[in-house]
Amino acid sequence: MAVTEAEREAMLRALELAANGPRGLNPQVGAVILSPAGDVLAEGWHRGAGTAHAEVDALSKLAPGQAAGATAVVTLEPCNHTGRTGPCAQALIDAGISRVVYALDDPGDASSGGADRLRRAGVDVVPGEQAGASRDLIDGWLTVQRLGRPHVTVKWAQSLDGRAAASDGSSQWITGPEARADVHRRRAEADAIVVGTGTILADDPALTAREGQSLYERQPIPIVIGSRATPAGAAVHRHPRPPLFYGTRDLAAVLADLGERGVQRVFIEGGPTLASAFIAAGFADTVLAYLAPVLLGGDRLALTDIGVASIGDARRLQVEQWMPLGDDLLAIARPAADAVAGKEGS
Predict the structure, then answer these.
(1) 20, 194, 229, 301: which is deepest, by most CB within 10 A?
(2) pTM above 0.90, yes or no
(3) 241-276: per-residue pLDDT in tens?
(4) Any bridge partners for residue 221, and if so which?
């Protein structure tokens, strides 16, 4: 049975509700309960580990028996396991829900299978509505489930000839105000922002996400990687969130620790050495390359050694979007293999 207009609108609302939830060890999920006539009976969303899942949160707002024959519209397949809370699939069955429309399949080995459980109970199940939008919302969590580490975005700004700075090391500003504002917006969407100690010592960045002269309400955790000490007076110590320092070059260990802390989206700011290290290690899930219409020459390349000895070893990317930003241009790309896999799974 095709998705109705009321169900489609309910899914868009469920996505809005899901975005209210915190990013952490659990996914952001929203749910809307519709009457058989298509009217909204209740809404819910997941507020974090240990709290009611979105479906149960919505059901809790209804009187006993009020959900009988109703439709549940959910951004993620209802779970099928008992953890701190019970299986949502069974809660929907017990409430008398007759139809479930959801966006994405649950990728978890233990938590998946809710759709099959619902079908066995005679519930009409329709997957895939707004799957792309749901995937975009929880892409960090999905990366954690698939790879066991946070989603990593590597960002740099460069001249048209591929330089990140002039010969004297100066780099402010290669790009214009529109591009810089875009960077800050993306910082605010990340859970953590990462630089190396070289960038701390050379530029003393604040690592905040700013909108004009004000700070975004949501700030990423500042992360500094490297063996050199960060000065006590460095700007990073005045960040609204306490910084984390990793005196290691083991990027896998850093990502593993961040994942255990509930970090889902990591934003690599630089400089070239650190960005190149993440790419060389295969940890770049998304690349943001800001291209400015300037020429600098010299040897201050945006990337250094990434383990490519010949053209056959080139790290192929697929550009998902070219975005004009004032006089600059942003290329948003993913590793080609990942981009193909994403399309196949959409």
Answers:
(1) 194
(2) no
(3) 999 999 998 999 999 999 888 898 999 987 899 999
(4) 192
